Every structure is written in C-alpha cells, then in structure tokens.
Amino acid sequence: MINRLLSVLFISLATHVSLAQDLAVLTQREQAAVIDGWLEYRIQNLLPELMTESGIDMWVVVSREYNEDPVIQTMLPATWMAARRMTILVIYQPSENAPVETYAVARYDVGRSFKRAWDPESQPDQWEALVELIASKNPKKIGLNYAEDYGHADGLTSTEHQLFLEYLPAGLHTKIVSAQTLAVRWLETRTEPEMATYRHIQEIAHSIIAEGLSEAVITPGVTTTEDVVWWYREKIKELKLDTWFHPSVDIQRADPANTEHEMNFANKAPDTVIMPGDLLHMDFGITYLRLNTDTQQMAYVLKAGETDVPDYLQKAFYQGNKLQDILTSNFVEGKTGNEILRATRKAMDTQGIRGSIYTHPLGYYGHSAGPTIGMWDNQGDTPGAGDFALHANTGYAIELNTVVFVPEWNKDVRIMLEEGALFDGEKVIYYNGRQKEIFSVPRMNKPWGN
User: Fold this and answer.
1) In this predicted structure, what is the pLDDT of residue 265?
2) What are phi and psi for residue 371, nearest 5 degrees?
3) pLDDT tens-digit series, residues 131-179
4) Is the pLDDT of residue 96 over 90?
5) Residues 312 and 404: beta-carbon distance below 8 Å
6) How many beta carbons lie within 10 A of that of residue 261, not counting itself?
7) Residues above pLDDT 70, as percent of the chain
8) pLDDT for the residue numbered 255
C-alpha cells in the first residue's frame, strides 16, 4: 500500500517538476500526502538500519504540546501542527536489522505507524503505561533525547527527564543512554524519495531568487535592498511556501567609503538604494515538504553602456567556484567535519586563497544536524559537532566566501556563495546546479551551470 501511494505521489511530483518554470507548488492536501508517505517510508526503510547502527534497541521520544522536541516534529503526521498534550513515541527493534515496532503512549494514534498503546480507562497514569510497555519489551538500551553537541537531539526537557527517572524502576536506569547519534542520523539522512525531489525544491528556490535579482523587481535608483528583501517574503507567501529565516540583501561598491565587504553575520547591512555598478549579494531559503533550502547568490547592476558583468568581477566570482571545488573534493565518507575543514584550509593556504568556510548540514532544519564544517566566526575545530563523521546520503549547504582584491576598485571584494547539495557517499552533487556567473540586472546572461 505504501509503495503504491508513493508511486502515485512521485508521478504527481514529476508533473509539477516539469512545470518548475511556473513555480508550480503542490496543494496543501497533496503536500500532506507526500509528507506522510515519506514518513512511513522512513520508518519502514531507514529506522531499522539506523537503530542497528547506533546499538539502541528502544528509542523513547517525549514531548509536550507547544514545547516540541525537534525530533518529534519530524515524526508527526502532516496534519498535526504540534504534539497533543503529552505525546510519547516508542520505537523498539526486537533484533538487529529487524523491522521496528512503533507505539504511541498517548490518547490518540500518531499518524499511521504509531498506534495508541495507552488506555487511560484501564491505566490512568500515562507514565506508568510507558514503564509497563518498556518492561514488556525488556530493551538492552533505552535512548533518550538528551545531548551535549546538538540542540536537535536535546529535546527532552528537564521535567520530562526527571519524571521518567522517577517512574522507571531503578534497576533499569543503567540501560538509559543518550540518543544523540541516532537522532542526528535520523535527521541528516535523506531517503531515495526525498533525494529524488530535492532538486525540484531547490529549483523553486532558484527561480524565486533569479526573479528577485532582476529588472522585474529592481529599478536602479529607486528600489532599496529592503524592498527586495520584502519582495522575497511576499513571494514566498504568494506561492504558499514557508521560510526558516528572514532573507537579506547587501551591496558592495567601488566607492572606497563602502565597507559592506567587511560585514559579517553580526552586522546587519543598512537599507540602501540600489544603483548602477552595485554588486548585490542575497541570502534566502524556503521550506517545502518539510525540507529546507539555503542559498546565497550574487548579481551586478549594469551601468549605462554595459552589456554584461565586468570581466574583473566575473574573475573574482570564479574564485568562489574554485573554493567550492576545493571544499567538496575533501568530502570523504568517514572524515569528520573538522578534518574536512583542515584539509580545505590547507589547500587554500597553498593556493593563496583568502576566505572562510562555514558549511552546515541541511534538511529537516536549515541549520540541521550532522558534521559542522567551519563556522563564520571560527575557522578552527568545532568541538562536538565538528567531530561528527560524514555519512552517505546526507545534505549540506555548501556555504563559504572568498576575498579577492580587485584593482579596478582598488579594494577587496567578497564573493559569498551558498548552494544546497547532496553527498552520495562518493561525491557532492548540487541539487540543481550552482551559480557559475554573476547575474546581470537587467538580465543579459544565463548564469546556471553544473
């Protein structure tokens, strides 16, 4: 039944992919069907592998309404906007590589997989019902969502943790372990259905970005950077999409007094009227089908008489593509984020490239769980999250910048790029290509390549 449903959904998605230029987006009802189908696929095909890999045979996820554990949000059906009252999910694997058993110690079934395992009429105490279920399965390890390195895996509140310990017999306390690795692997791993659709999601994001950085939106001398930012927000709502962060647009200019190339994430660029000769940079993301994009691209506003972006800016831009290639060439399964960063920075030093790497996992969350590969304010090791190893079928925002001295401007120019990509275990594949040339405003070039 699940496979037949997924086949129908993928046919529907393929139809919409062919209409990507029209920014076709599934209806809310269609989206819910896809989300729920993907969830069932993940439970049946991914969870058994991850639980065996982590050595945890029972995973208990506890969440109260409107104080949701980041993991439980990815396990709720599409029509649930939050946990209901106290929602407790229990996932049990009776033996290695065996299918998992899924239970909801709650007043309701939770989706199709998590069937209600609590009858308040016969056992009024929900925690006692949970303990009875645990005792009946006699697990070797009980994974709870508390974690030092990832907020995504640290969703068990202090109150819930305390109550769990109070109710669980003392003899079982030694079986409790952190489910950090299991939670991260659940969040970071993309299944075949998700990977098949991520290109379409990124294509939608690219189409919106391209329109925003064009004459359709920008009138030089009139339009401000904040006008473009809010156009993006309105466009997202118009298409019935969501975003996980507020977009930004900033400017670099030949004017020596302009220092926006020195700004970082701690300094918000001022609202500025866009003028001919400006080099624009934007940061933008959408959320669709519970998956996120995170993209940074650049555009140049043509001066009178110009028909294309100046060669000296294009050459600076190519340094950004070169750094992308250096970074992604160091993606090797089993390497940690810190190891990838060190290898990349060594190559940068050897080749005389100035810049920073701050690449992060991308998927259910924009800044998701998995190996951190540098941070904008730390180009050394990131303890904990940077020590996590790279796994196959995981998604990333390939995020970085290069700093290039441009003689024609007599100053540094910062090329800031970010693109969604998949690591398939052997290589990094950009979901929908990457920007390889700076957009011109008005548009006179075709900036997409592989």
Assistant:
1) 63
2) -70, 120
3) 999 999 999 999 999 999 999 999 999 999 999 999 999 999 999 999 9
4) yes
5) no
6) 22
7) 92
8) 87
The predicted-structure confidence for 193-223, as pLDDT tens digits, reads as follows 999 999 999 999 999 999 999 999 999 999 9
The torsion angle over the Cα atoms of residues 317, 322, 323 and 325, rounded to 10 degrees, is: 140
Who contacts 121 (Cβ-Cβ below 8 Å, separation ≥6)? none
- Helix residue ranges, H only, 46-96: 47-54
Dihedral sign for Cα 38, 43, 47, 48, please.
Answer: negative
Report the C-alpha gap between 255 and 239 in whole angstroms.
38
List Cα–Cα distances, 294 to 106, 194, 371, 442, in angstroms: 36, 16, 17, 24
Single-letter code of the amino acid located at 264? N
42 three-class SS: helix
Give how far Cα 270 sits from Cα of 148, 225, 252, 277, 297, Å: 37, 8, 12, 18, 19
pLDDT for residue 266: 66
Q: Which residues pair with 105 in a beta bridge?
A: 88
Query: Phi and psi of 229, rounded to 5°?
Result: -55, -50
Give the CB-side neighbour count of residue 382, counting CA atoms within 13 A: 25
Q: Which residue has the tokens 């692997």?
A: 185
Q: Are strands 354-357 and 295-301 parallel, antiparallel or unpaired?
A: unpaired
Instruction: Please give the full DSSP string across 254-279, using - where no structure is assigned.
Output: SSTT--GGG--TTSPPPP-B--TT-E
The CA R_g of the chain, rounded to the nearest whole Å, is 24
Contact 293, 417 (CB under 8 A): no
Q: CA–CA separation, 287 vs 361, rounded Å?
A: 15
Average pLDDT score over residue span 169-191: 97
Q: What angle do CA 258, 264, 268 make, to 5 degrees?
A: 75
Extended strands (E) in 228-319: 248-252, 279-284, 287-288, 291-292, 295-301
N-term to C-term CA, the chain:
37
Q: Which two tokens stand for residue 244?
A: 């996980």
pLDDT, position 284: 96
Task: Compute how many other C-beta atoms are within 10 angstroms of the C-beta atom of residue 438.
Answer: 25
Q: Which two tokens stand for residue 261?
A: 């190339």
Q: What amino acid occupies position 341?
A: L
CA distances from 346 to 16, 144, 252, 327, 339 (A): 43, 39, 28, 11, 11
Cis peptide bond N-terminal to 442, omega within 30: yes
Residues in the chain: 450
pTM to 2 decimals?
0.90
| DSSP for residue 364 | S
- Domains annotated for the chain, with CATH where assigned, are 25-186 (3.40.350.10), 198-449 (3.90.230.10)
Residues 401-411 have pLDDT tens digits of: 999 999 999 99
- DSSP three-state, residue 2: helix
